[in-house]
Amino acid sequence: MTMLAGTEPDLTVTIEPLTAQAFAPYGEVVAHAGSERRRFFPHVFEHLADAGEPSFWVSRVDQIDTLPLMVTMLERHPFTAQTFLPLSGGRYLAIVAESDAQGGPDPATLRAFLAGPSQGVTYRRDVWHHGMTILDGPAQFAVLMHKTGRGDDDVFLDLAHPILVRPMVALSEGAER
Fold it and tell me: How far is CA 102 from CA 6, 76, 90, 159, in A?
């Protein structure tokens, strides 16, 4: 994700705080937000029968992004949910959109969420999302999803029109990079 000189966005999205309620149409916020001993996350293992091979790895992200930023590509996983659990690092963005009737990203559902270092996210199967966008420094994430073994687990889409993601006022005051 980079700022593109001379590129005008068709859509602007303002970053909002990541909450379980706001993120629910796109997946789950993986954090313990209650008094019970355990909190279960039923969608973490969501997958179609074609994606029967569990896959777990650690991703390292060194690129620190700046705000505002331009989104030019989204991805989705048609057979499985995908979960990111922060192991190190600070704040990051979860930029998401639901699929429209033709399977592309629905601009009306596009949102950008600011996640803290103690919040993981599970993107539901077929939810469009941007690659990991780190704001505070290098980070590592444990990642869980299922695979088909056919090489068709990831769908990437170069957007015909970029999307501008801008900070919320509280984020931009003294915290913008």
Answer: 30, 14, 36, 15
